[in-house]
C-alpha cells in the first residue's frame, strides 16, 4: 500500500536550507504567545510526584474531558482526547469507514492535504466536490456525489486553505445529507477560534447521530507541538474509536494535557480576541500588498491562510521553490491542496514579518 | 470491524473504585523517580519562545534521533520517534503487513495484550506460539508456524508478562527465520533497561533488512505518560512508516521530546542501575512471599512482572476482582495474555508496597 505524503515538510525543509533570508509562511504554526497559564502549568507539572508522570486515562484526563464537554454542551462520555486534530480526524474517518456503510469519503477541492492521504491509508476512496471561487461549499454539489457508497463527508470551517467560513445553512444541510445517506459528517473545527466573520457555526448546533466534530488546542492556544486535540462522537460510535485510539497510541501525552487543561480553565476570552485582532491586521496588510502586486486572491473569513494567484506564475512546487530563492518568501504550492487551485499559492499569516513578505511579493511581481 | 480492547483499563477502573485499601499491581507504571534532568528540562522548556511550542519535525526532534542513532549504532535516517512504544509497534506491524508478503503475524502465548488487537485492527491474522513454562521461546516452534503467509514475528524480550529474557541464540534464529520467509522480526525492547539477567540481546546485534526494533523511554525513565518511543527501520522500510506516522499523528509531543532528549544526554548509568537494584529487591521479597503462599511462579529475568498461579484460584477476571475486594491486591488476569496462562495472575512490581502485597497474598492463600 502506498499513500500520499503531504508536501509541507518538503517545502519547510527547502525553505530552511535556502541561502538567503526567507520569510516562512509555509505551515500553520502560530508565532504568537501561548496562554500564560499554559507556561505556569508546565512548571507546576515538572515538580509533581512520579505518579503524575505515568499514563493518563487512555481517552484523556477526566478533568479535561469534563471541561470540554461542559463548554461544548455534550456528555463527557462522547469526548475523546486525541493526539491533536490529526489523530482526531484519523479516528473519525476510520470509524466512518468501519461502519460498513460505504467506502467513499467526500472531500472538498481545494482540500486540506492530510485528508486524501488518511482516506487512502484507511482503504477509503476520496470523492471531490469543487468549492466556489470564494471557497464556499454548495451542499447541492455534495448531494450530487453522495450515494449509498458515501461513508463520510469531511467539512473544514473555517477552512484551510481557502479561509472560507461556512454559514449555518451549509452546516445544517451537510448534517442532513449525512443522515439521508447513512454517512457521517466529520466537521473539523480546528480554526473555530479564528473566525473573523462572526458566521462560524459548529456541527454541534445540530443534534444528530451522524456527525463527529474534531478540534484541537494546537491553533487556539498557539501550541501545535503539544498535540492535544479531541473528537466528539455520537454515543454509539465512541467505544470503537476509543479502542482504536488505545491500540494506536495507548494514551495521550500527559504533560501536554495537564498544561492545556489549566490553560483552558484560566484563560479568558481576551486572549483569543487579541489573536483574532492580530490576524485581522495581517489580513489587511497582506491583501493590500496583493492588490499592489496585481494578484487575484480571496479575503479570508477565518483560519490563517490567504490563497493568491499571480499572473503567469502557477503555484507549482517548482515555482514555490523559485519564490523562496528569488523573493525570500516561502508559501505552499496550490497543487498540494487538490486540483482546483493548482495555479495558486497559499500563504500562512503566522509571521511577524507579514508586511515585509507582502512588500517582497509586490516588488517581485510588479 | 471489531477489535479486542485490552483489559488493563477495566481492571484499573475496578481497583480504583474498590472500597478498601488496594495495592495496585495492575499495569507497568513505574513508581520511582524520573531522571532529575527530565524535570529540569521541562522547566527550561516552559520558558522558551513560542516557536519552540510548535510542531517538531514529523519523524521527531533531530537531536533526539541523532542521540538515539549514536547509542544504538544505526544511521539517523533509520530512526523514527514515535508516540511511545505503542505507536512504534503499530507502525512496525502496519509496515510488515503492507509489504504484501503475508498477512499472518506470529505472536507468543502468553502475549502482551495489545499485540493481538493491533494485528486484527490492521487486517492481519495472529498465529500463536506457546512459550515454555519459564517463558522462553523455542525458535523451532516459531519455524513450525512460519510460512509464506508470515508477515511478521513479534518478540518481546525482556518479556511482558513472563519476565523471560531471550538469549542471543534465540534472537539470532528469529532474525534468520524472518529472512528465510521474507517476513519482519519486530523486536519490542521496551524493557531493555530492566534486564536483571545480563542475557539481553537486542535484535540490532544482527545486521538484517528483516528486523524492526521498537523501544521507548516510558519504562527506562519512568515516564509512561510522556509518550516518547522510537522505531528503528531498515532503510527500505522507513519512508512509508514515516508517512503513516505523519498521517495518523502529524508529529510527536514536543515538550515530551525536549525533556527526554535532555534526560537522555544528562543521565548516567547509575540512574538505571539503581532502578534495576530496586526491582531485584522487589523480586526477592515478592517471590519469597509466593513461596510462603505455596504459589507456582517463574522468577523474572527482566521486565516488571511476576506471573503466579494459586491452587484452585484460576486467573479469571472474576477472580482478579475477588482478589481486589478480598485481599486488597490488584493484579491482571492471566486470560488477558492469551490462553496459555489463563490460570495465572500477573503482578507488576511497581509499588513501594510490594512487601505488603506479598504479605496479603500469603495470608489470603495460606
- Uncertain runs of chain A are none
Q: Provide the spatial order of strands within the biggest beta sheet of chain A.
A: 2-8-7-6-5-3-4
| Largest sheet report of chain A | 7 strands, mixed
What is the percentage of strand-forming residues of chain A?
15-25%
Largest interface: A-B, 61 and 62 residues
Quickly give the structural class of chain A.
Answer: alpha/beta
Rg calculated over all Cα atoms of chain A:
20 Å
Q: What global shape of chain A is seen? A: globular
C-alpha termini separation of chain A: 46 Å
Question: Oligomeric form of this entry?
Answer: homodimer
Mean residue pLDDT of chain A: 95
Count of DSSP helices of chain A? 12
Number of strands of chain A: 13
The H-and-E topology of chain A, N to C, reads as: HEHHEHEHEHEHEEEHHHEEHEEEH
Range of helix content of chain A? 40-55%
List keywords for this structure.
seven-stranded mixed β-sheet, alpha/beta, 366 residues, homodimer, 12 helices, 15% strand, four-stranded antiparallel β-sheet, globular
What does this structure look like?
The structure is a homodimer of 366-residue chains. The first copy, chain A, has 366 residues and is of the alpha/beta class. Chain A has helices spanning 8-17, 36-46, 62-72, 84-97, 114-121, 139-145, 168-180, 235-249, 254-266, 269-292, 317-327, 354-365, and strands at 23-24, 79-82, 104-109, 125-130, 150-156, 184-188, 211-216, 229-232, 296-297, 305-309, 329-330, 332-333, 345-348. Chain A has a seven-stranded mixed β-sheet, sandwiched between helices. In chain A, strands 9-10-13-12 form a four-stranded antiparallel β-sheet, covered by helices on one side. In chain A, α2 crosses α9, α4 (84-97) crosses α5 and α4 crosses α8 (235-249). The longest helix of chain A has 24 residues, at 269-292. The radius of gyration of chain A is 20 Å and the shape is globular. The model of chain A has no long low-confidence stretch (mean pLDDT 95). At the A-B interface, α2, α4, α5, α8 and α9 of A face α2, α4, α5, α8 and α9 of B.
Amino acid at each position: 500500500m502506498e499513500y500520499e505524503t503531504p508536501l509541507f515538510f518538503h517545502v519547510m525543509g527547502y525553505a530552511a536550507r535556502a541561502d538567503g533570508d526567507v520569510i516562512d509562511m509555509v505551515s500553520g504554526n502560530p508565532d504568537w504567545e501561548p496562554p500564560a497559564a499554559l507556561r505556569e502549568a508546565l512548571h507546576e507539572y515538572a515538580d509533581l510526584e512520579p505518579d503524575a508522570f505515568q499514563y493518563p486515562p487512555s481517552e484523556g484526563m477526566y478533568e479535561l474531558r469534563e471541561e470540554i464537554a461542559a463548554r461544548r454542551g455534550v456528555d463527557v462520555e462522547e469526548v475523546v482526547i486525541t493526539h491533536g486534530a490529526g489523530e482526531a480526524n484519523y479516528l473519525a474517518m476510520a470509524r466512518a469507514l468501519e461502519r460498513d456503510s460505504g467506502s467513499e469519503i467526500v472531500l472538498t477541492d481545494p482540500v486540506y492535504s492530510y485528508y486524501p492521504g488518511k482516506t487512502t491509508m484507511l482503504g477509503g476512496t476520496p470523492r471531490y466536490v469543487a468549492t466556489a471561487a470564494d471557497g464556499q461549499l454548495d451542499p447541492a454539489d455534495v448531494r450530487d456525489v453522495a450515494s449509498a457508497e458515501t461513508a463520510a463527508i469531511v467539512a473544514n470551517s473555517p477552512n484551510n486553505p481557502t479561509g472560507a467560513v461556512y454559514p449555518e445553512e451549509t452546516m445544517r444541510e451537510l448534517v442532513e445529507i449525512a443522515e439521508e445517506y447513512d454517512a457521517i459528517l466529520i466537521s473539523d473545527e480546528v480554526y473555530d477560534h479564528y473566525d473573523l466573520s462572526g458566521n462560524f457555526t459548529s456541527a454541534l448546533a445540530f443534534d444528530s447521530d451522524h456527525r463527529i466534530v474534531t478540534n484541537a488546542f494546537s491553533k487556539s492556544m498557539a501550541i501545535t507541538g503539544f498535540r492535544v486535540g479531541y473528537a466528539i462522537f455520537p454515543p454509539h460510535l465512541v467505544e470503537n474509536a476509543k479502542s482504536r485510539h488505545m491500540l494506536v497510541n495507548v494514551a495521550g501525552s500527559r504533560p501536554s494535557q495537564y498544561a492545556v487543561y489549566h490553560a483552558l480553565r484560566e484563560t479568558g476570552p481576551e486572549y483569543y480576541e487579541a489573536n483574532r485582532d492580530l490576524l485581522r491586521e495581517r489580513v489587511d496588510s497582506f491583501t493590500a500588498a496583493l492588490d499592489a502586486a496585481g494578484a487575484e486572491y480571496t479575503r479570508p473569513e477565518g483560519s490563517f491562510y490567504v490563497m493568491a494567484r499571480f499572473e503567469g506564475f502557477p503555484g507549482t512546487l517548482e515555482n514555490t521553490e523559485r519564490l523562496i530563492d528569488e523573493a525570500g518568501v516561502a508559501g505552499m504550492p496550490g497543487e498540494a491542496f487538490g486540483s482546483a487551485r493548482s495555479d495558486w499559492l497559499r500563504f500562512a499569516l503566522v509571521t511577524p514579518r507579514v508586511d515585509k513578505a507582502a512588500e517582497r511579493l509586490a516588488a517581485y511581481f510588479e
